[in-house]
Amino acid sequence: MHYDPEHPFGTADLLASPRVIGQIGQTLDGRVATPTGKSLYINGKCALEHLHRLRAGVDAVIVGVGTIIADDPRLTVRLSEGPSPVRVVIDPEGRMPKDARCLTDASVRTLLIHREGIGSPCKNPIVIGPSCDGTLSPAAILAALAERGLRRVLVEGGPTTLSHFLTAEVIDDLHIMVAPKIFGSGREGIVLPPIDRLDEALTPATRTLLFDDGDVLFQCDLTKADHG
Ligand SMILES: NC(=O)c1ccc[n+]([C@@H]2O[C@H](COP(=O)([O-])OP(=O)(O)OC[C@H]3O[C@@H](n4cnc5c(N)ncnc54)[C@H](OP(=O)(O)O)[C@@H]3O)[C@@H](O)[C@H]2O)c1
Asked: How far is the centre of ligand 1, averaged over its atoms, from the C-alpha of 2 (Å)?
């Protein structure tokens, strides 16, 4: 099936309800960055435009601080119509560089999420207590955003952040953009608790969409997933 830019989310009524979308761009061998952390750009122009359409359709875009340090993204909408979402950076330990473009560019609001007791470069940070495994609970993060009116959310990466949200089973739709490239080394996109049997694999209802420049989008509906 060919990609339809009028329906980047896949289903027309998707934005009618609160929705959490995850995305990752990867190679044929499942790598999202080289071993030295280079990921710009694994996918082609069409995929980048799709990503900007996703941003334009949500209230907030979430990344982890690792992505800010590696790529210094602006996280704004520039390659499609529509408003830029509020930027949210999960930065438990306060590692966010003060000159990061998300902080210096005042065109859109940026919210930082810290654990307790961290000095923040931002005025009103969101403070989340650690869950039992020491990480910040994705459900608590989403609840804090919903309290601020941010209910449609794009988890844009990177791999650690997306994996936490997938493990917590709070992602409704997952967009995996596959580029016809093989790195043979580098960062894996999705790391979940290990399984043993094949019937334990997460098996979402999936549509595949072909882009003109060769990338393939796997649009996975995790609300209809077989969780093994
Ligand atoms: N191909 C793609 O689509 C794509 C997208 C984005 C990034 N990338 C690449 O991915 C690499 C960066 O990977 P990454 O995994 O370090 O990036 P990341 O997921 O953006 O950042 C990970 C960091 O965010 C914090 N974090 C996120 N969720 C958390 C949670 N629930 N609880 C506690 N801490 C949380 C932690 O910070 P602390 O360590 O400070 O506790 C964690 O180490 C770069 O090479 C970048 O280029 C690729």
From this structure: 31
Q: CB–CB of 185/198 below 8 Å? A: no
Its pTM surpasses 0.90: yes
Give residue 93's domain range: 18-192+199-226
Residue 73: CATH number of its domain: 3.40.430.10
Residue of 26, 38, 90 to test ligand 1 pocket, by largest number of atoms within 8 Å of CB: 90
- The total of structural domains in the chain comes to 1
Q: Name 64's Cβ contacts closer than 8 Å, sequence gap at least 6.
A: 89, 90, 91, 157, 158, 160, 161
The predicted pLDDT at position 12 comes to: 42
Q: What is the pLDDT of residues 23-74, one digit of tens each?
A: 999 999 999 999 999 999 999 999 999 999 999 999 999 999 999 999 999 9
Contact 88, 111 (CB under 8 A): yes
Q: Using one digit for the tens of pLDDT, what is the confidence trace for 184-225?
A: 999 999 999 999 999 999 999 999 999 999 999 999 999 987
